[in-house]
Specification:
The protein is an alpha+beta fold. The chain is 31% helix and 28% strand. It contains four helices and seven strands; from the N terminus they run βαββββααββα. The strands form two sheets. Strands 1-3-4-5-2 form a five-stranded antiparallel sheet. The protein is globular.
Length: 209
């Protein structure tokens, strides 16, 4: 039974012009894609099975990330349930020439262990806090998980709140796309990072208009 520290993973990306918006800042959707990738790593290694992103509780953008920056993602499993894992992701941006580092964003993500058919399965592993600091992290993650469960108790009602007829909206945009094999992460399930990237792009179009 590993401690939280033993689940930690690190992922580093160089921000290229293809990753940026028109202002030269890292596109928010690309940041979310990378966060989903970073959260997948420790969950995948702990569960030893495919995992899917179930929820992203918070995402706080604290500082812009520019083209040419190095972006480091540090992720760790902070709590384990029956089939889900709470994963924390901290993101740091670094100017490669000056060495200046700044915290760019952070997120808390729920990852779900799934079988070959994409159905939830038991994680089959757990974590054991090694000290008071890790016990505090586990407790905070447990509280987040319980709060999310209450918030999503009636998923159908929550989904209905988002709906609406196009004629009742002042501004609307509908985009359809095919899910290709390269978009998948487990079987024919679309990688959540790809979906988040698409959502942010659509939202950006509406905001610009």
């Amino acid at each position: 039974m590993p401690a939280i520290a033993e689940t930690r993973q690190e992922l580093v990306h160089l921000v290229l012009p293809a990753h940026a918006n028109v202002h030269g800042n890292l596109f928010g959707g690309r940041m979310m894609y990378w966060i989903a990738s970073a959260a997948t790593l420790p969950a995948l290694r702990l569960a030893r099975s495919s995992v899917l992103l179930g929820s992203m509780d918070d995402l706080d953008f604290l500082a812009p990330v520019r083209v040419g920056d190095l972006v480091t993602f540090r992720s760790q499993v902070e709590y384990v349930g029956r089939s889900s894992m709470e994963v924390g992701v901290e993101v740091e941006a670094e100017h490669p020439r000056t060495g200046e580092r700044r915290r760019a964003t952070s997120a808390h993500v729920a990852m779900v262990a799934v079988d070959e058919e994409g159905r939830p399965r038991l994680v089959g592993a757990t974590i054991t806090p090694r000290d008071a600091a890790e016990r505090a992290v586990v407790e905070a993650a447990r509280v987040r998980k319980e709060a999310r469960a209450r918030r999503l108790a009636d998923r159908a009602a929550k989904a209905a709140e988002v709906g609406g007829e196009e004629e009742n909206l002042r501004s609307a945009l509908e985009v359809s796309r095919i899910v290709f094999p390269e978009d998948a992460v487990a079987g024919n399930k679309m990688f959540a990072g790809t979906l988040l990237l698409a959502i942010d792009e659509v939202a950006s179009i509406l905001a610009v208009r």
